[in-house]
Amino acid sequence: MLFHQRFVPGLAIASYIVGDEKSGEAAVIDPTRDVGEFLQFAKENGLHIRHIIETHVHADFVCGSRELKARLNDEATIHCSGYGGDDWTQAFADQHVREGDSITMGDVRFGFQHVPGHTPEHIAVTLFDTSRSSDTPWVMFSGDFLFVGDVGRPDLLGEEAKQELAHQLYESIFERIDELPDITEVFPAHGAGSLCGKAIGSRRSSTVGFERRFNPSLQRKPEEQWVDDLLSEMPLSPPYFKRMKQVNRDGPAIIGPELPGGKRWSVREVHDRVCDDCLIVDVRSQESFAAAHIPDSINIPFGQNLPTWAGWVLPYDRPILIITDEPSQMDQVAIHLLRVGFDDVQGYLEGGFRSWETNGLPLSRLHTLSVHELDTKRKAEKQLTILDVRTEKEWNDGHIEGALHIHGGTLQDRVTEIPRDKPVAVVCGSGYRASIASSFLKREGFEDVTNVIGGMSAWKAAGLAVA
Fold it and tell me: Which residues, in sequence order, are CB contacts of 82 under 8 Å at separation 6+?
């Protein structure tokens, strides 16, 4: 049996490809929309991908089942849960599986178990290598039901559903997987950094037995207490999660082998807004953006966190034009955006930001302060708003006294809480999120906005006072 885990940092997505040497067939579990790596692995190992399996309707990324099937000339079978009912049945599936169903590829057999709680339709996929044992599952692909050190959050479908789902999750954990032996390995759909749980461990696999013994959420206690403990201090979920649910239920659009975003736009075209409704997204570093940028552009620095923050702050109803000084980044930028459903990437500024500068076009700048300068400024000036855009947990672990706390991903909904008649100094953990938030505030018409370089990490390292 061939086995490959494909991990996407940032969104912390784990997908899997399992191959059977005897039959030459393979199955992919929970693929992302950028399917090239699955195709390459199959080609290099002489495998034909015959089956594509979805554990549930994902909330944090666009599923890749339809994309992968299209790239395979529609010759693969998509298997999704048969427990979705009217609301969460994925109509694009070729087969809706239930407990008792199976998929066989030579010596490999997959079974299915309904484990609701994270979502109503969620299934776990058990893997048997029948050349070794036909009745003991070697692996469980747990999707977002069970993580290393955590379980899936039950609150993504709204307040009405979360209590019912939390109780379903309790039953799934303590009753539905009771028959699984301790030696069965657990391979979840996410690792540390994903917002589909609140305390996911950094290891990318475990065993059922280890989780039963050491996972806090797998320790038995009265059901109501367990539910209360699970739901307490749950991190804020990005607004794009709701959109991803709908897209993945109905079936995402097929992109094809050619990525969007390859068109080069001249300086004059960008300045004259030939792309009339384009949102300009600057993926240069926070330092470069602060030094000079195109007015009204949004800064989301290139890197593994780009898709998460794009989902937090960008609207889905506008095309996107990218500013980068590295055209070689464009394929990866497009992939990052496609993973969270931004399909309309129009292209990028030819010649990068330097071409804008050398053509003498309008520039905007973002002020920056060191933590020492901020400390001096806040003591000398009462007319200053320190805006902390970190998470609630980060805030509770220590913040600058008198700061205003608004999670950076919720600024568009809470911007009226920020005084417009005072300078605003934005602080996060290191400066990355503060640059995003600062660019958003400037676009909203705030004139005196400053990014605090180094953020709270630098503030604490400098020994400055923490509330």
Answer: 89, 96, 97, 98, 101
Q: What is the DSSP string of 238-289?
A: PTHHHHHHHHHHH-PPP--SSPS---EE-HHHHHTTSSTTPEEEE-S-HHHH
Whether residue 382 has pLDDT greater than 80: no
Contact 116, 99 (CB under 8 A): no
Q: Which of the four pLDDT bands, split at 50, 70 and 90, describes residue 383? A: confident
| 29: helix, strand or coil | strand
In tens, the pLDDT along 278-294 reads 999 999 999 999 999 99
Distance CA(13)–CA(187), nearest Å, equals 11
User: Contact at 8 Å (CB) between 339 and 12?
Assistant: no
Beta strand segments in 327-379, E: 345-349, 367-369
Average per-residue pLDDT for the chain: 96
pLDDT tens-digit readout, 176-190: 999 999 999 999 999
Cα gap 180→123, rounded to integer Å: 14
Res 275: pLDDT: 83
Which has the closest alpha carbon to 87: 227, 246, 200, 208?
246
Model pTM score: 0.94
Q: Report CA torsion sign: 388, 389, 393, 394.
A: negative
Domain ranges of the chain: 2-250, 264-358, 367-461
- The confidence score (pLDDT) of residue 285 equals 96
Burial class (CB in 10 A: 0-12, 13-18, 19+), 373: middle
User: What is the third-level CATH fold of 367-461?
Assistant: Oxidized Rhodanese; domain 1 (3.40.250)
Spatial contact of 435 and 289, defined as CB atoms under 8 Å apart: yes
CATH of domain 2-250: 3.60.15.10
Q: Give the whole-angstrom CA distance, residue 321 versus residue 113.
A: 44
Q: 3-class DSSP state for residue 216?
A: helix
Residues carrying an active site annotation: 428
Domain 264-358 is found in CATH 3.40.250.10:
yes
Exposure string (b/e) for 315-352, b if CB count within 10 Å is 16 or more? Answer: eeeebbbbbbbeeebbebbbbbbbbbbbbebbbbbebb
Same fold yes or no, 264-358 and 367-461: yes
CA contacts within 13 A on the Cβ side of 177: 36
Of 209, 247, 201, the closest CA to residue 66 belongs to: 247
Model confidence pLDDT, tens digit, residues 52-105: 999 999 999 999 999 999 999 999 999 999 999 999 999 999 999 999 999 999
Q: Which amino acid, residue 191?
A: G
Closest of 89, 363, 450 to residue 250, by C-alpha? 89
